[in-house]
Design goal:
single chain, Aminopeptidase, alpha+beta, 28% strand, eight-stranded mixed sheet, 13 helices, seven-stranded mixed sheet
Amino acid sequence: MWLKAESRINDIETRTMEVRRLIPETVGRWEAFVEHCPEATFFHRSGWKNVIEQAFGHQTYFLYAEKEGEIEGVLPLGHIRSRLFGNALISTPFCVYGGIAAVSQAARTALEKAAEELAVQLNVDYLEFRNRSHSQTHWPVKELYVTFRKTMDPDPEKNLQAIPRKQRAMVRKGIQAGLVSEIDDNPERFIAAYSESVRNLGTPVFPRKYFQIIGKEFGNDCEMLTVTKGGRTISSVLSFYFRDEVLPYYGGGTEEARRFKGNDFMYWELMRLACTRGIRIFDYGRSKKGTGSYSFKKNWGFEPEPLFYQYRLVKADKMPDINPLNPKYRLFIALWKRLPLPVANIIGPQIAKNLG
């Protein structure tokens, strides 16, 4: 199979690099590499292979490059085929970061070539790398997204004082409202708050099975924090922990969240608890420029850092534009916001599984 063949690259060092596909026997080596590779993120972890396959039924191709038995680079890929949204090979689908994580240029070159060959073999519209840096200099790049990351102080009080005054006042209103946070072992409250929130935004909800598989795959590195008032769920967030970073990834609030500043309080509580556990980096994740999410994160004193989503066009003649800002989706979004929540929760997963 082409994955087992040595890469046919002119560079002598690269010709000794072998690209292989992840199998159960090599998961330990993959995980060890990702843990120590400076370019790797939580979304390069091998567990995403099972999440994507089991939750959504998509084919995955998790590739790694090795030389003399040592892994020097990894590339997680998922193949998303949809009548509505096209045919794409993505690193990493359902994740905000991806692309090649490598410690040598030879591994990077070998993995990029292997991915391009696979994209042609699968006859996809395009190959997409969700890079945090501008890596594929000859590929077109979409600069729609930014990320927000900030180093936290070990002292929670210093972190609170570092929040700009107006946003800090929102946090204090949540505290004064008597909100309480707790680490939640039961996903039901999170799913309830999250599904209501995304319906209100006009976005299809992911299936319950997806969150269950994430919890199974990542264990203690995946954690839910739920905010309540008088026993009622106000807001909840699902966060990922990787090395010394925390990334609140899926979150939402009920109807009462706005009145009691539930989301403001929730993210502060996550920040407070994380820094007391020795976490240094708070990663607020991806936002589209010019959106409410973008403004919300800037209000916390976080500065946007560009994300470089890069594309190797195969059958397509232009980069895809699958996002809520695209005018062609506005009617759909407006109609979705009006759906009764039980209906949205039934229909949503059938659409969301193809929104990789």
